[in-house]
From TrEMBL:
<dbReference type="InterPro" id="IPR000385">
    <property type="entry name" value="MoaA_NifB_PqqE_Fe-S-bd_CS"/>
</dbReference>
<dbReference type="InterPro" id="IPR050377">
    <property type="entry name" value="Radical_SAM_PqqE_MftC-like"/>
</dbReference>
<comment type="function">
    <text>Catalyzes the cross-linking of a glutamate residue and a tyrosine residue in the PqqA protein as part of the biosynthesis of pyrroloquinoline quinone (PQQ).</text>
</comment>
<keyword id="KW-0560">Oxidoreductase</keyword>
<keyword id="KW-0004">4Fe-4S</keyword>
<dbReference type="InterPro" id="IPR011843">
    <property type="entry name" value="PQQ_synth_PqqE_bac"/>
</dbReference>
<comment type="pathway">
    <text>Cofactor biosynthesis; pyrroloquinoline quinone biosynthesis.</text>
</comment>
<dbReference type="Pfam" id="PF13186">
    <property type="entry name" value="SPASM"/>
</dbReference>
<comment type="similarity">
    <text>Belongs to the radical SAM superfamily. PqqE family.</text>
</comment>
<dbReference type="GO" id="GO:0018189">
    <property type="term" value="P:pyrroloquinoline quinone biosynthetic process"/>
</dbReference>
<dbReference type="GO" id="GO:0005506">
    <property type="term" value="F:iron ion binding"/>
</dbReference>
<feature type="binding site">
    <location>
        <position position="33"/>
    </location>
    <ligand>
        <name>[4Fe-4S] cluster</name>
    </ligand>
</feature>
<feature type="binding site">
    <location>
        <position position="37"/>
    </location>
    <ligand>
        <name>[4Fe-4S] cluster</name>
    </ligand>
</feature>
<dbReference type="InterPro" id="IPR058240">
    <property type="entry name" value="rSAM_sf"/>
</dbReference>
<keyword id="KW-0411">Iron-sulfur</keyword>
<dbReference type="InterPro" id="IPR007197">
    <property type="entry name" value="rSAM"/>
</dbReference>
<keyword id="KW-0884">PQQ biosynthesis</keyword>
Length: 380
């Protein structure tokens, strides 16, 4: 870096701040899942059951998280209820004072298991929604009968007077169903619906050509969400995240790298974001070898892109560098080849125009769901 051309910002202390305590922990308890969603953001190389952390290690991680200042733990995967110890883990997380959010497909969770989870202290349920009917749900998730099971699960949660959030990841296969998904969320009794356009990591990146929506469809959903928000005030809260590929500026990713949250993979690697393993040169510490506090304070992977000192131009001198912290490192790597580049969703990125071309080209190809690759463990 040429310091004469890109002078160092004066406030070095601000550029590399000491980390504040994290607020959230994404605990990916397992990569096992009955569904095979084409948009899944799990890595292509899934952690096997034999590599998963055991019960006692997860309990230690939850205790350390609470001591570190974490408020929310998201019990996720894969399908977290595929673990036999899910109730025990939930109970422990609640006992050490964490707010527990179970992120589930709802498939294979019995009413008795649901009761046990609530009794153990589960605070909130977030249910994935792949479509508004059986056909689209099956096409997206590669699982027959999924929609009916999800509906039954949603109704069982609400019948217990429990807060339910539905999470619908939107892409070309289901974008036409956004109004129907909103109606279903109301019919199921959910209090909140997240309409989140696909982030292209893992299986979603592999299937991007089948998933990329057209610009006009995205614009239409913005209007649909806005009018539904107005109509459903007091009944349903709708959060919406729209796609990066048609954006002007990137999103603040995970509250900033190593700033607010951390993820732990089923095998125990601690990551600054759940897709960070795609940045292969980073050194990830494992919770098997280090405490969460050590990892948060000193792990090389967390230090790599913390603050703004690592930035190159155009981010380095940009007035928005403390707003979005250069966007997503994983997207910068996937689309520009260098994780230290500005996220190409940014208009100031040299790759931004190319990003728009990719989106337009892929969205205009004839959708062929049969060409999508369903998520699954690699055959060995
Ligand atoms: S996105 Fe689908 S396949 Fe991936 S973990 Fe969630 S429910 Fe399972
Ligand atoms: S140049 Fe970098 S910091 Fe500025 S808006 Fe773009 S991505 Fe954000």
């Amino acid at each position: 870096m040429n310091e004469a051309v890109f002078p160092k910002p004066a406030a070095e202390a601000v550029e590399r701040p000491a980390p504040q305590p994290p607020l959230g922990l994404l605990a990916e308890l397992t990569h096992r899942c009955p569904l095979r969603c084409t948009y899944c953001s799990n890595p292509l190389e899934l952690d096997t059951r034999s590599s998963e952390l055991d019960t006692e290690t997860w309990k230690r991680v939850f205790t350390e998280a609470a001591e570190l200042g974490v408020i929310h733990v998201h019990l996720s995967g894969g399908e977290p209820t595929a673990r036999k110890d899910i109730v025990e883990l939930t109970r422990h997380a609640a006992e050490v004072g964490l707010y527990t959010n179970l992120i589930t497909s709802g498939i294979g969770v019995s009413e008795a298991q649901l009761d046990a989870l609530f009794e153990a202290g589960c605070d909130h349920i977030q249910l994935s929604m792949q479509g508004a009917d059986a056909g689209v749900t099956e096409q997206v998730a590669g699982y027959k009968g999924g929609f009916e099971k999800k509906e039954a699960f949603a109704r069982a949660v609400v019948a217990r007077d429990f807060p339910l959030t539905l999470n619908a990841v939107i892409h070309r296969m289901n974008i036409h169903q956004v109004p129907d998904m909103i109606d279903k969320a109301v019919a199921f009794g959910a209090k909140r619906l997240e309409i989140a356009h696909t982030q292209y990591y893992g299986w979603a990146l592999k299937n991007r050509a089948q998933l990329m929506p057209a610009r006009e469809d995205v614009d239409r959903t913005i209007g649909e969400v806005e009018s539904a928000r107005e109509r459903l005030k007091g009944t349903l809260v709708i959060d919406a995240v729209f796609p990066d590929y048609y954006a002007k500026y990137p999103k603040l990713c995970n509250g900033g790298w190593g700033a607010r949250t951390l993820s732990v993979t089923p095998a125990g690697k601690a990551l600054p974001c759940h897709a960070a393993e795609t940045i292969e040169h980073l050194e990830f510490w494992s919770v098997r070898d280090h405490s969460l506090a050590e990892i948060w304070a000193s792990s090389p992977a967390f230090e790599a892109y913390r603050g703004t000192a690592w930035m190159k131009e155009p981010c380095r001198s940009c007035e928005r560098r403390h707003v979005d912290y250069g966007g997503c490192r994983c997207q910068a790597l996937a689309l520009t080849g260098d994780p230290a580049n500005a996220d190409p969703a940014c208009v100031k990125s040299d790759f931004h125009e190319r990003l728009g071309e990719i989106a337009t080209t892929e969205a205009s190809t004839v959708a062929d769901p049969g060409a999508a690759t369903y998520r699954g463990f690699r055959k060995r």
